[in-house]
Write a structure and sequence with these properties.
This protein is of the alpha/beta class. The protein folds into 3 domains: about 140 residues, no CATH class; about 220 residues, Ribonuclease H-like superfamily/Ribonuclease H (Nucleotidyltransferase, domain 5, 2-Layer Sandwich); about 100 residues, Taq DNA Polymerase, Chain T, domain 4 (Up-down Bundle), CATH 1.20.1060. Helix content is about 45%, strand content about 10%. The protein contains 20 helices and 9 strands. The strands form 2 sheets. The protein has a 6-stranded mixed sheet with strand order 4-7-6-5-8-9. It has a 3-stranded mixed sheet with strand order 1-3-2, with helices on both faces. The longest helix has 29 residues. The protein is globular, with a radius of gyration of 28 Å. The N and C termini lie far apart (about 60 Å). The C terminus is likely disordered.
Length: about 525
């Protein structure tokens, strides 16, 4: 895997100086790049990483005795479907002789602080990190031939850049001027909120990705950070109206909070998380993963404060929010460059972005549906499920059904996991299938399909059809649409209180009245 998938065609393992983590000999003269594989190697040779996990530092560009260094997963871990080292290798730092130790597919860690990585994707990320090493070697070779090439790009997928300028806690006049002075451009935007009520603590923005403004709305005492907070929010609404808003996971968080909590409508949008999904559908899409793939920036998620209770914590969060904007800008530029090399990819990304606004409106205001058609479909599904269950009972027979139910209250067999397990495991003697997360016997969709591959029993597929129809019915229950003529109804008069229906309607109306802001 390492040779064929990661190193070739430019290199192979025979051209690399491969050594164990225990070796202490000096590096070979002329070494241009160091690839530290595994957490133990990273912690041993890069002291600054010892308080971080491998998933936090992987892919970032570090300095080891003046030589570029990149951390990544071990090749063996990248091909093992499970962490066999943990239970079979007594010399492993994570060794546990108990075979019952649960082995998660993902790295440990706070999902809010940094994204998890599936073991199945280790190989992809190892290849991406080795690609960066190849770029470093290529640049080193080119610099020998051309000394004036120091500004050459690392790689078409890994961008270099001018250092950012962070303007933290600027004056309100500077913020308003920056927000309202540019139109028709991309505004790179990120917010930070508390977890309880999604109150906006601060936001950061940039138009060029270099000068980043980080603006507090609430200070660390939870009072307004400026006397003119209302004017700043008004300027933000104007900037969002007049530009394309770029955010990471904005469709599910930033845009929703602005519309629901602060009644700022979102129109033209770009979500880097969605764009990453269109580029690599099966790969992790957190901002940390995107930064590690498209850039050589170090992981910065651990620089955020754990609280928002002191001035230092507030300023740490402001700087952290600004770094999110800067790295998001780098990711956006790299994705744009990559999309130009794949026919149809840019169109696919644009199609996805066009769905963000309808998605937000349907989330906030509900979905317009024909209730007659929905009820008709639900009635049809009910009849189908009755017939599926009737066929199942005919195939099993009354004697078998009595043994399964044991005189208890009659219910449809497909909807009762206990009855299904009693029929297949206890009555027919099929080998029991386990739930991989709990270790207990189970008969979910995956287990049913496994039985269907082995046994020619029509009851199995009838149960699958029943459950699929039942799930379709449950998904036909939509959030009802809020008519516009009800905009003045259900309004809470208490100061600061917000009514969900009123806010959602305000969002739709505001899209037509943005010129009046």
């Amino acid at each position: 895997m390492l040779d064929d998938y990661c190193l070739r065609p430019e290199f192979n393992s025979m051209q690399c100086d491969i050594r164990l983590v225990e070796e202490t000999d000096a590096l070979l003269p002329g070494t241009k790049c160091v690839l530290l594989l595994g957490e133990a190697a990273a912690h041993k040779f890069l002291s600054e990483t010892r308080s971080s996990t491998l998933s936090m530092i992987r892919g970032g560009l570090y300095n080891y005795n003046g030589i570029p260094a990149i951390c990544s997963f071990l090749p063996q871990d990248s091909v093992d479907i499970k962490n066999y080292e943990k239970t079979h290798n007594s010399q492993s730092a994570d060794y546990s002789p108990d075979d019952s130790v649960s082995d998660s597919d993902e790295d440990e860690g706070d999902v809010k602080a940094f994204g998890k990585t599936k073991r199945a994707n280790y190989c992809f990320w190892l290849r991406a990190d080795i690609r960066k090493c190849k770029s470093i070697l290529r640049i080193s070779q080119n610099s020998l031939d051309r000394r004036d090439s120091s500004n050459q790009k690392m790689d078409s997928n890994a961008t270099t850049h001018v250092g950012p300028i962070y303007v933290v806690y600027p004056g309100h006049e500077e913020v308003i001027k920056a927000l309202t002075g540019i139109k028709g451009q991309h505004i790179y935007f990120d917010i930070e909120t508390d977890r309880e009520q999604q109150n906006l603590q601060c936001f950061a923005f940039s138009f060029d990705g270099i000068t980043i403004y980080s603006v507090p709305i609430l200070d660390y005492t939870y009072r307004p950070a400026y006397k003119d907070v209302a004017k700043i929010m008004r300027a933000l609404a104007i900037a969002i109206r007049d530009n394309i808003v770029v955010a990471h996971n904005g469709a599910a968080f930033d845009f929703y909070v602005l519309a629901y909590k602060y009644r700022i409508p979102i129109d033209k949008t770009y979500d880097t998380m969605i764009a990453m999904h269109r580029c690599f559908p099966d790969i992790e899409k957190s901002l940390g993963h995107c930064v590690s793939y498209w850039t050589t920036e170090k992981f910065h998620k651990d620089e955020d404060s754990s609280g928002y209770h002191t001035e230092n914590q507030m300023r740490d969060r402001l700087k952290y929010c600004a770094k999110d904007v800067h790295t998001m800008f780098l990711v956006k530029q790299a994705i744009d460059a990559y999309a130009r090399t794949i026919p149809g990819l840019q169109r696919s990304i644009d199609d996805a972005m066009s769905c963000i606004k309808p998605y937000l409106i349907s989330t906030l205001q509900g979905i317009r549906i024909d209730e007659t058609e929905v009820n008709k479909k639900c009635l049809e599904n009910d009849r189908l499920m009755l017939q599926y269950n009737r066929f199942i009972e005919l195939l099993i027979g009354p004697l078998g059904m009595n043994r399964i139910r044991e005189g208890k209250k009659m219910s449809m067999l497909p909807g009762s996991p206990k009855q299904c397990m009693k029929y297949f495991y206890d009555l027919l003697g099929y080998p029991e299938k386990k739930n991989p997360s709990t270790g207990e016997r189970s008969l979910g969709k995956n287990q049913l399909y496994q039985l269907a591959l082995t046994y020619d029993n029509p009851v199995i597929m009838l149960i699958c059809l029943y459950r699929a129809t039942q799930k379709e019915t449950s998904r036909l229950r939509f959030t009802p649409w809020v008519p516009r003529n009800e905009i003045h109804k259900n309004t809470d008069s208490k100061a600061g209180a917000m009514d969900t229906e009123n806010i959602s309607v305000q969002y739709s109306i505001s899209l037509e009245q943005q010129t009046k802001i």
